[in-house]
Amino acid sequence: MLTFLLLILLTCTHHHISTQTHPQPPLTMDPTELQTLYNIMETLSSDREWRTTYPNPCEPSTSWVGIECKPGVSDSHLHVTRLDFGTPPNPTCKNTSTFPSQIFQLPYLQSIFFFNCFTKTKTTISISKTKTRPSCLQQLSLRSNPSLVGSIPSELFLALSSLQILTVSQSEISGAIAPEISNLNSLVHLDLTYNQLGGSIPAELGKLKNLVGLDLSYNALTGPVPHTIGQMGMLQKLDLSSNLLTGNVPNSIGELSSLVFMALSNNGLHGKLPVGFGDLKELEYLIMDNNPMSIELPTEFGRLLKLRELRLANSDYSGEIPASFSQLLNLTTLSLENNRLTGNIPVGIANLSHIYHLNLSKNFLSGEIPFDSSFLKRVGENLDLSENSELCLNPMQAYECAKLGVDVCNRSNRRVGNSGSGVKPLKTSEGRVVEVSRKHLFFVFLVFWCLGFYH
Questions:
Q1: Cβ neighbours of residue 29 under 8 Å, at least 6 residues apart?
Q2: Strand ranges (E), 1-133
Q3: What's the rounded Cα separation, in Å, for the pair 445 and 436?
Q4: Residue 326 forms beta bridges with which residues?
Q5: Any signal peptide, and if so, which residues (predicted)?
Q6: Which of helix, strand or coil describes residue 108?
Q7: Radius of gyration of the chain (CA)
Q8: Which position has the higher pLDDT, 202 or 373?
Q9: Do 108 and 135 touch, CB atoms closer than 8 A?
Q10: Percentage of the chain with pLDDT > 70?
Q11: Residue 129 CB neighbours (<10 A)
């Protein structure tokens, strides 16, 4: 029995020793992938002698920032999954850097970031013709690259069907958006802002059913907003501002039930809004200033109860401010300046307790301003009512006249005097307001009444 136990002990000890003396070899990079990585680094950056400084760039102990690697599932290699250039402490780009088309040959690459990389030497987005395994790239981000020119090639959209985030902004990209963009059916965010893109917005964008954010602002896009825009049911952000778009806002906009942010400002849009516009129940930000709308201010805006900002300035709206605007209890900003609005300011506007910016200047509003002292104090300098020739303020708040750019109302709720003649508070030499007796107050009102009578 003792002999049997000794045999078991010796066997276990031998097995333990054998496992300890045969450690797993360290994971290395595939030689072809490693060579491609070095070629890319030498095209972009002169920060290091990359080949000699990092003979195994994916080694866990490496100090190379801007690179991430993961072990392969079906092989014994480490693979590059992320490259980040331009933002410290990541590798910086040299003045002669050009877009490395080979970067799409890294078979396991999931994320690419180029920030302020192509600034001196003109370069274009290109994709290598060499056949590789299907790309698993999920994010391609190019920001602030003023020497990045040319168009976005349609081949890019065909080769990178796994993309979820595509950002090409603050560059000199031109040309039209290729209809092949519809191939990016996994896309969640598309940002092509601050470029020189022209032509019309392709109707094929409507096929991007998973898109949550679409931003094409600050380009030179022309033509109408495509009706297919309403097919993107997941869309939460739509920004087409600062282009050359014309025509009506399409009826399909009303189908974007998840929309939170919409900006269509600085275009040539005009005409009636869709009937379903008031059904955008999730909308919090509506920015549509600087469009020649040439319609009456729609009451439908008052149905957008979650609105925080409503900006409709410089858009040739006419008619009265709808009473329904008083239902926008979450509103923080209301900008209606430089339109052709008439009538009184709705009394309910004074009950919007979150308002901190209100601009109704340069219209044809009339009557007494319905704001009490607490409202005027809260909004302060962010309230602009100037250049409304028939708008006036209650005599009890005459000290606010000069600041608001309006005058005091007379007994007929008409202005008294010119816009600069608002009554100022009486003060002592120390700057404190003098208390006024009832007799003196009666005399002041009598003077105002007389002025109004002879006016």
A1: 37, 56, 57, 58, 69, 77, 78, 79, 80
A2: 28-29, 67-71, 77-85, 111-115, 123-124
A3: 12
A4: none
A5: 1-19
A6: coil
A7: 33
A8: 202
A9: no
A10: 82
A11: 7
Edge-to-edge strand list for the sheet holding 364-368: 318-320, 340-343, 364-368, 390-393, 407-409, 415-416
Counting every residue written for the chain, the total comes to 455
Residue 299 and residue 319: Cα distance in Å, rounded? Answer: 11
What is the DSSP-derived secondary structure letter of residue 413? S
Q: Tokens standing for 72?
A: 């392969």
Phi and psi (nearest 5°) for 229? Answer: -60, -30
Pairing of the two strands 67-71 and 77-85: antiparallel
For 198-238, the pLDDT digits (tens) are 999 999 999 999 999 999 999 999 999 999 999 999 999 99
**Do the beta carbons of residue 292 and residue 271 sit within 8 Å?**
no
Residues 71 and 49: their CA atoms lie apart, in Å, by 25
Whole-angstrom distance, CA of residue 20 vs CA of residue 15: 9
**Coil, strand, or helix at residue 65?**
coil
Distance CA 355, CA 332 (A): 4
Residue identified by tokens 């990178």 is 160
Single out the residue of 311, 278, 319 nearest to residue 295, CA to CA. 319
The DSSP symbol for 164 reads S
- d(CA 390, CA 368) in angstroms, rounded, equals 9
Contact at 8 Å (CB) between 157 and 135? no
Instruction: Give residue limits of the domains in the chain.
Output: 28-454
Q: What is the arrangement of strands in the sheet containing 222-223, beginning at the earlier edge strand?
A: 222-223, 244-247, 268-269
pLDDT, tens digit, 9 for 90 and up, residues 107-139 = 999 999 999 999 999 999 998 776 556 678 999
Give the Cα separation of 66 and 196 in Å (integer): 30
**What does the alpha-carbon distance between residue 77 and residue 159 come to, in Å, rounded to a whole number?**
24
Q: Classify domain 28-454 at the CATH class level.
A: alpha beta
As a 3-state breakdown, the chain gives helix, strand, coil percent values, each rounded to 5, of 25, 25, 50
Q: How far is CA 243 from the centre of its chain?
A: 15
> How far is it, in rounded angstroms, from Cα 55 to Cα 252?
56
